[in-house]
Design a protein that fits this description.
heterodimer, A: alpha/beta, Rossmann fold, ten-stranded mixed beta sheet, 10 helices, 10 strands, globular, B: mainly alpha, MetI-like fold, two-stranded parallel sheet, 2 strands, 2% strand
């Protein structure tokens, strides 16, 4: 079930350092939302705070609210492990588990918590997820082979298959194409289009054409100055963002006249 | 003329290159020399064992003692004892070492992890004689009630058949001492490889909603497997050759036996050499050296198998 995300006044800290300040936005269900901005502006940090991944760094904490379907992610009773099961993530570099076959990689999330699954059901999940990730036809004859044997673009689609195999409510993608060649990038972008019909997708990208191609809404993050926290400059429908942005800073950034 | 000279490098650059090349050559030669020296030392030990040990294979049977007819009858129980005690030590040490290593690398907060790692490393600096004294005097006393209990209630297991030793100086005690002795090396190596798990793999597991243990199971252990095996093999190597901890803890006899809580326990090759070498006749010395050769060969085989297993794991990963 795709869900929407409501963020109110979110500050993110690493220890005493405030990395992101005062972000509020509503991410719509069954749509693609892209974050753009210069390096170090906090867009990846913000993305990671949406499934509490940033907490793996010691000293990381947030102030403010992130609501998914009316429930606060940072409520003390909420288990971060549970959050990450419901909100999946795809990373910058493809990271299939190196010792596992393609088949086992897809099922890795489903196998957590020692959940048992009959063979026929497992086969179905693998086929459905790999089809969902546009990879089935390329790998159906070698499911038992190691996931590391695939090309970079195939590995990234395998990671997407692994993420959607657990049927998450939201799929977060942290620069998913930055390590891929243009053809693999096109394959992943097509996939994002297809996935939009069933998932809420949030993607961080350095490539503004990519943001323009795949997303419905775009958020532009920036730093006020070096050493200051990142903040959200503008959040608008992508079409408006790239033709008639509200903020002159946004226009400067997307037209390449940055600074 | 001027165009031709521009092709040769200016004198300052070529002089610098020459110095670098000299440093390079010296370093390459000393590294190569060190490598060859180690091989030579190993070959020297092997040749010594071979020359001095071969006569020991065919001495007067009375030198073997205990009514043994041939060298192989004599060395068999000793080799059995060596492997048996070492495996017991591994059974004690490995789970403990892996748990400590995981605690240091993944569970403990940094201000606790560093001192714990330091203390474990210190354990490796304790001389084996001291471990022997501690095992023979302190640990054996402390273990008496445990040994009695094992002898009374678990005597249906061959390992604890009994009768329980009254002084606590048993193979079980020695195995525990050995386990403590090989703990630091297994812990140190495991901790290093655990800590080197690529962030990428750990994040893959965390992102799927894995608990801390599941992260370890999915990302850390598969990655660290070959390194951990290498650490265990180094620990096994140390246990196989360890002399003092065994000699000083229990009284032994060269017999095949599984009972580890009795008065006498299986003799090991290293302890047998240490016990008998001082007052041995020339023939008996040859016999002891031949036993040493058997230990050498066995340790070599163990290491060889370990390397093969590790290599196989890595090849599988690379495929």
């Amino acid at each position: 079930m795709a869900k929407s995300i409501d963020v109110q006044d979110l500050d993110i800290f690493y220890g005493d350092f405030k990395a992101v300040e005062g972000v509020s936005m509503t991410i719509k269900a069954k749509s693609v939302t892209a974050f753009i901005g210069p390096s170090g502006c906090g867009k990846s940090t913000f993305l990671r705070s949406l499934n509490r991944m940033h907490e793996v760094i010691p000293g990381a904490r947030v102030e403010g609210k992130v609501m998914v379907d009316g429930m606060s992610l940072y409520d003390p009773i909420v288990d971060p492990v549970e959050v990450r099961r419901r909100i999946g993530m795809v990373f910058q570099r493809p990271n299939p588990f190196p010792t596992m076959s393609i088949y086992e990689n897809v099922l890795a999330g489903n196998r957590l918590n020692n959940k048992r699954m009959p063979k026929s059901e497992a086969d179905d999940v693998v086929e459905k997820s790999l089809r969902g990730a546009n990879l089935w036809n390329e790998v159906k004859d070698r499911l038992g082979k190691p996931g590391m044997g695939l090309s970079g673009g195939q590995q990234q689609r395998l990671c997407i298959a692994r993420a959607i195999a657990v049927e998450p409510e939201v799929l977060l993608m942290d620069e998913p194409c930055s390590a891929l060649d243009p053809i693999s990038t096109a394959a992943v972008e097509d996939l994002i289009h297809d996935l939009k019909s069933s998932y809420t997708i949030v993607i961080v990208t350095h490539n503004m054409q990519q943001a323009a191609r795949v997303s419905d809404d775009t958020g532009f993050f920036n730093l006020k100055a070096a050493g200051k926290p990142g903040h959200l400059v503008e959040f608008n429908p992508t079409k408006q963002m790239f033709t008639n942005p509200d903020s002159p800073d946004t226009e400067a950034y997307i037209s390449g006249r940055f600074g | 003329m001027s165009t031709g000279s521009s092709l040769t490098p200016p004198p300052a650059v070529s002089a610098r290159r020459g110095r670098l090349a000299l440093g390079d050559r010296v370093f390459a030669a000393s590294a190569r020399g060190a490598g060859l020296l180690i091989l030579l030392a190993l070959a020297g030990v092997f040749v010594f064992l071979l020359i001095q040990g071969i006569p020991g294979l065919s001495v007067d049977p009375k030198e073997y003692g205990q009514g043994f007819e041939t060298f192989w009858q004599y060395v068999g129980p000793l080799l059995f004892g060596t492997i048996f005690i070492s495996l017991l030590a591994l059974i004690v040490a490995v789970p403990f070492a892996l748990a400590v290593a995981l605690f240091i690398s993944h569970y403990a907060p940094r201000r606790l992890a560093t001192p714990v790692a330091y203390v474990i490393d210190l354990l490796a600096a304790v001389p084996s004689v001291v471990f022997g004294l501690w095992g023979g005097r302190a640990l054996s006393q402390a273990l008496k009630p445990v040994i009695n209990w094992l002898g009374d209630y678990l005597n249906w297991i061959p390992l604890f058949k009994g009768p329980a030793s009254p002084n606590g100086q048993t193979a079980l005690t020695a195995a525990l001492v050995l386990g403590v002795m090989i703990l630091p090396i297994i812990t140190a190596i495991s901790r290093e490889v655990f800590a080197q798990t690529p962030r990428l793999n750990e994040e893959a597991a965390i992102g799927l909603g894995a608990t801390r243990w599941e992260v370890i199971r999915l990302a850390v252990l598969p990655y660290a497997k070959s390194g951990v095996i290498a650490g265990i093999m180094l620990g096994l190597g140390r246990a196989l050759g360890e002399t003092m901890a065994v000699t000083m803890v229990y009284s032994s006899s060269p017999k095949y036996m599984l009972n580890i809580i009795g008065d006498t326990s299986p003799q090991t090759i290293a302890a047998n050499i240490a016990n008998n070498y001082a007052e041995a006749s020339a023939d008996k010395q040859h016999v002891l050296i031949a036993a040493g050769l058997v230990l050498f060969a066995f340790t070599f085989v163990v290491n060889f198998i370990a390397r093969w297993a590790i290599g196989r794991g890595e090849r599988k990963l690379a495929r």
